[in-house]
Amino acid sequence: MHDDSLLYQVSELYFVQGMTMGAVADRFQVSRSTVSRMLALAKERGIVTVSLRMPSSPSDLLSRRMHDLFGIRIHVAGTARTAPAAQRLEAVSRYAAHLVGEWVTDGSTLGVAWGTTTSQVASHLQPSTVRDVTVVQLNGAAGPHSTGVGASSPVLSTMARAFNAELYAFPTPAFFDLEQTRTLLWQESSVRRILAVRSAADLAVFSVGAFQGPVLSQVYSEGHLSPATLRSLHENNVVGDMCTVFIREDGTYADIDLNRRASGPTPSELARIPRRLCVASGRHKVRGILGALRSGAVTDLVIDDRTATQVLAHLETQTPARPTAAAATTHQLD
Fold first, then answer.
1. 146 and 36, same structural domain?
2. Is-above-0.90 flag for pTM?
3. What is the DSSP code string of 202-271?
């Protein structure tokens, strides 16, 4: 029977110093088969342990780089190099649906912003057995030319069915004509009840809207904004919206006039929800994604690998955006 000291010496020569089994056999004047048995015995006794490390994938590297920059959880969906925009949106939506399915537990309140991306996320949710779940609409959807039901109802009802949840719709305009109207409506008891449920959410799911791109955000494609309003937003360096609240690339939003008439929660209000999942894909959303991350409204980002690479490339080639004085006045909208 070989003692542990001898087994250690044999193992050190073979595994650490890289000697061949024949050379080790010659050193100890034993046969190669004896060395083989000694190495096997060293493993059995725990003298030699074996560990495997999965090599980092490109998605893992992207996730770590973005996490280091923004300090939030980054979930990168890997896609084929030649995948078109629709397939990349499909990949991030499927990934996000998996995460939402894991995070929603008994008694959860899930806040959802309607839109093209969240509609895709909802379509990939699997039926769950959780109980006492609430789904609440984060922002209004009605506009000058429609009730908004066609945009908001499918995503909300699909999510509610997946979790057998009680649904709280938010039947208000996406944007009010007058700030005073919004202020008055927010005082109505029926609206205050929905706002209270919205504030009690423990998970929010939303995307970043963009002014252009292969898959247009519904806020911009369904007539909510006039050409004059769009020009004003461009003049204010707006790069997108979250929950119908417009943001700049540096994450500021408080001094954008239209936000005083918006129905959705501000980034500051979103930040009070424990977990906030932003789902985004596409080069046209790169600046909006940066604005969302810098606003403090996001704890988790699901993004595809190409868009993540484009976000990092944009950061490397542009002067870093810094919060302006408007950042100090975010409380004015809360």
1. no
2. no
3. SEEEE--B-SSSSS--HHHHTT-S-HHHHHHHHHTTEEEEETTEEEETTS--TT-GGGGGB-SPPHHHHT
